[in-house]
Amino acid sequence: MHLLALSGSLRAASLNTMALRALQKLAPESVAIRLYESIGALPHFNTDVEMSALPEIVAELRRQVAAVDGVVIACPEYAHGIPGSFKNALDWLVGMPDFPGKPVMLINTSPRSTHAQAALREVLATMSARLVHEADVAIELRNRSADEPEIVEALRVGLQAFVRACTEPRAF
Ligand SMILES: Cc1cc2nc3c(=O)[nH]c(=O)nc-3n(C[C@H](O)[C@H](O)[C@H](O)COP(=O)(O)O)c2cc1C
């Protein structure tokens, strides 16, 4: 199974990226998780550009999303919303034919940040993603390490549920 991990933060010391790296570490051998690291390099979304010549970096992101069984997202909240750079990345995926039905797992590293998670769910549902709610993980990572047993366990349980959902035939 192949999963793509998307972090909503560009910070080098991002807690969200840290959670995704922890998920990579604990994943069983049968589950390969690739962390996409070029969100900050994507151009601003523009339908004129999308319709004329799709930038290679966007085409590559779409190829990577199309190729995986599921997408894992860990995204922070900025001013009660989705960080602009991450929403920009999602906007580039809206017009992608393979996105509808794509299983998505959400990791929230700050459970008090409810606005961005709600907005993310709304955006992804509008994009016809398959939100795998039973795989959602909410873990407070501020002032904590992703190596703590309780956090590792929460991530492991979420990943197991996600892998199960990605493997099962879709229930419509
Ligand atoms: C510009 C800015 C706005 C923020 N707004 C909120 C907010 O509205 N609600 C919240 O819970 N946290 C807010 N935060 C805190 C971040 O969500 C938090 O620091 C998070 O850990 C950042 O993610 P990262 O560690 O992956 O970079 C804000 C942080 C910044 C820099």
Automatic annotation (TrEMBL):
Molecular functions per Gene Ontology: FMN binding; oxidoreductase activity
UniProt domain NADPH-dependent FMN reductase-like: residue ranges: 1-140
Highest taxon, organism lineage: Bacteria
One GO CC term, this protein: cytosol
Name recorded for this polypeptide: Putative flavoprotein
